[in-house]
Write a structure and sequence with these properties.
The chain is built from eight helices and six strands, in the order αβααβαβαβααββα. It is of the alpha/beta class.
Length: 264
Amino acid sequence: MLKKLIRKNEQTISNDLFERKKKAQQEKLPNHVAIIMDGNGRWAKKRSLPRIAGHYEGMKIVKKITRFANELGIKTLTLYAFSTENWKRPKLEVEFLMKLPEEFLGTYLPELIDQNVRVNMMGNIESLPEHTKKAVKNAIDRTASNDGLILNFALNYGSRDEIIQAVQKIASDVQEGIITSDIISEELLDSYLMTKDLSEPDLLIRTSGEVRLSNFMLWQLAYTELWFTDTLWPDFDESCLLDAIESFQTRNRRYGGLKGEEIN
């Protein structure tokens, strides 16, 4: 009897998710969703587990959310996986985090290829351990011809560092006569950033209850819709993603103007 009730409840949840997904697809979807995946350590601590257990559970959620985002029809999913500041964490935790891309891509890459997902990365890849670098480059190469969802990992990434590098390159190109200073504009700076081939995020999600950007895509998020949740990343699921998208679909994006409103 209990098993029947559990199966019935699971079926009800599945049907509800399907209907919500179908309805969301009938409205305007965000083309680019960016997520600050926060709360792995707290999730583990609540269960008296080591922090690395939270990171491992979080990796499973990356699989789930990538699959669902692709099914929804989202074009780009950017995941903040490891920041330039995260090197300050305990050595054993950093070493474990550097193994996760290798494990994730090693086990999930065939499915990503089948789903027509293209793997991309932004950040300082050359400073990563050799085994991490090899796994990332292999995934990028093997999915390069895919034209579905772009799964963009922000790995060893910091927005201030990105902007500084862009400014340095612009200054160098001005000095070498490749460009002149009078053509410097927002569009030009865009073309020097790590996201030059991506659209700007339409929706930013941050989990775990923190309400800050943490040096993530500071330039690109200028007009992005923000959505914060207390849910810890290892507890984030398809329903949570739909909550964020449904909120996004109710908003009036004015980009500093008065879209749909009369100026008095």
